[in-house]
Design a protein that fits this description.
Blueprint: E1 6-10, H1 14-38, H2 49-52, H3 54-82, H4 97-111, H5 126-150, H6 157-160, H7 165-169, H8 172-204, H9 208-214, E2 216-220, H10 221-238
Antiparallel strand pairs: 1-2
Helix pairs in contact: 1-3, 1-8, 3-5, 4-5, 5-8
Length: 239
Amino acid sequence: MNYHKLRRVFVWELPVRVFHWINALAITTLCITGYMIGKPPAIMFGGEAWERYLFGWIRYIHFVAAYIFVANFVFRIYWGFVGNKYANWKNFIPTTRKYFQEMWEVLKIDIFQTKPGEHMAVGHNALAGFIYFLTFIAFGIQVITGFGLYAAMSESWFAGLFTWVVPLFGADSGVRNLHHILMWFFILFTIVHIYLVFYHDYLKGRGEISSMGGGWKFIEEEAFQAEKAKEAAESKKAA
């Protein structure tokens, strides 16, 4: 077993943590209500449907959660430019050769297990950052398809911005199918994400779970010093 000296480091700022939990709640609400809209359950009721207005409420909750999701998503895009170095978009978009090299190293160590040791990173490692980047793209597609479907039944100016979506696909069915498939992508992503967070928290003891509550992580001293050296080198190069 390898032992590392750990340093307590503040990584996730409050806006990032707030985004994370609002996003988690919004996606959970959207997936549950979206599944019920796509496959309505058989509910026995003696009166008229309008008396309970059950699916009216389900759709209303879905639409409200969608607006919250969009606002939260737009805020996260903004914070990717003004937040600290761990929230910056540079950690998510592979633009350098070194980024791809780090992704390959993480794959060999954590996924293929063809290389011994462990990869140390203060924030997201390159592979995790890239996966989150793909997830953000999926967020955008889900917003476009969702509001494209909603535009036909809404007088909202915002929904009206997406009236071009359905004609682009030719019919509602194509948009609806893509929207539904992405729902299952988010469900699968959530399952894997929760598993990996608990697994790495147990395996490495870095406070992965609690870091989304208080923002602090326990980082290997080697990783912390390597990041400081990297920052110093980049500052010297920029100067």
